[in-house]
């Protein structure tokens, strides 16, 4: 093995440097310690006095503010000051209440010995213990002296307080109490009708001062403006000097402090030689220790250098090569650590996704084993699944860039994590779809979900709806619980957005009403195509019916698709220009609306807007067509004569002085259907009205609609409507009963 060149050179560099630094630091330390110790000690002593002053002032200020605030908002206090009828029962009750208020304040703050208020109008004093004339009050001299002054407030010098002094029968051993008093003219913002006096127990104040001083080698004492000591720490020797003095801006008191022990610099001289000897011994011990450590821990480096020297042309102290070698090693280790963490994160997310989606079934034991691998000690308990869905997600995607969307989603993740974790609840969450964050947490989460939803509404430019499943007892039920939450979220189409769904809402509408939506849509579409009034009212009623029903979004989507199909079918049965208008201008908008709507109200507004535009366009097409004006006259005539069994195309053509072919072509161009279908449609529509609004027999209704034989009427009606006349009437009656 080669010689330890590296160890020797390292020792040659380190030891001299160490000795030089030790000597320099020791010299500087000794010199500066002597010269600056007094300054530092005086500054520390001043800080000690200042801290004590701030602490005591904060207590006095707090007492002042609490009492003033309590009494200022107490109507009984102001009423007591201005009440002139002092002999009434109400006044006696008022005194009792106010005295109780004083007692409550005294009990709340242990520094307060007593509180009393002096009324100038009758020179009476009410305290927490009694109510009496000023002449019978033990503190009358103090009150009389301050009542004559115009000062708004005052902290008094230390004094002796005895409430019962003038009355011999109330004299008790130890009744005299040393206090300082806070005096203020009252009420605060009106004409001054009295004095409020708050007496602070000096003994308790001194205990607080001692507690604040602790085991400090210094002392502090609280002195009033006349030089009397109010309170002081107990460890004040007779020869102690005052080092620092702080004047309180709150009370006007002075806080004096100093050191209780001898000057530390004097003690330092007596131990200086001893510490120098100890220092030299420590330097020698450190030298020996450093040599031993260098020998031990630099040995691997010497071995490495010797190995490199034996394999290449290498200077034993080529640190640049060693530095590059270590950088490469650290870089590779860092890359491996990053890749390992990334792989674990991906694996964890995939595992959670498979559990939430039901691709992986897991037992309680498997769950506990997996979370223990991740360092989580908490085992499986009853849990709940929540799904947070961003409302109006299509608008969210169009309005914000992908980066902004990611930031908003990260914000949702963080508020969910912080809100739930602050209750010491373990959570797992994953964006299983672009607009839905699935969260699993242990325990019930309704309160936390409400806080999260409120935070999102206040701080983010969008809202979220939340579906919360029931509690699950086994990990194998997690996927089922998520499906339950998703099912609950689907009801926001009729219930509205920015809501929390914890159960399927009670049904407010009937299934039968939803079935009749299709029929009403077809009737409204026919009115729209024919240019007759009432289609908007019909569709408004249709959407009102849908909004009253409790239906999931998937069912609503199917219903709206069929409504659009009915509208398309009826409109496209009209003239060619109607079909072109619907295909190019209306149908794309309705398809886009189906993809974007969040609630029934949103779909309703968009649908009515699109169909209103269609109605305006159809009206424009009709107004520019002279044949349509002729058809309007034909339509009026046919509505008056359709009940005639002998009604025929030839009869109508003869009435309007047209040929049969011309009449047939005119009806076809105006309605999109031939003469026979048009007459049948008029008769069936009238028959439906009579069946649902009258008690006439089927035979009578058939005759009124132009059918001599009820069999032929029933056959035609069933072909057009899909139900026999009798069945249609039963449904109409049932619909009315359900609506009631």
From TrEMBL:
Xref: SUPFAM superfamilies: Homeodomain-like
Keyword Translocase on entry: no
Keywords, comma-separated and alphabetical: DNA-binding, Membrane, Transcription, Transcription regulation, Transmembrane, Transmembrane helix
InterPro entries: Homeodomain-like_sf, HTH_AraC, HTH_AraC-typ_CS
Coiled coil: none
MF term (GO), any: sequence-specific DNA binding
PROSITE patterns, per the entry: HTH_ARAC_FAMILY_1, HTH_ARAC_FAMILY_2
Domain HTH araC/xylS-type: 632-731
Entry superkingdom: Bacteria
Transmembrane regions: 12-34, 274-294
Keyword DNA-binding among UniProt keywords: yes
PANTHER family (alphabetical): ARAC-FAMILY TRANSCRIPTIONAL REGULATOR, REGULATORY PROTEIN POCR
Protein's name in the database: Helix-turn-helix domain-containing protein
